[in-house]
Amino acid sequence: MGTDAKNNATTIAANLDNLRAVATQLTGSLESLEGLRKQLVDIRHAAMVEASVGTKSNSPAPITSPLLASLNAAIAKIDSNIEIFKKNVAADAASLNKLADDLEETTRKGAHNIAQQVAHS
Question: Could you tell me which residues are beta bridge partners of residue 11?
Answer without folding.
Answer: 2
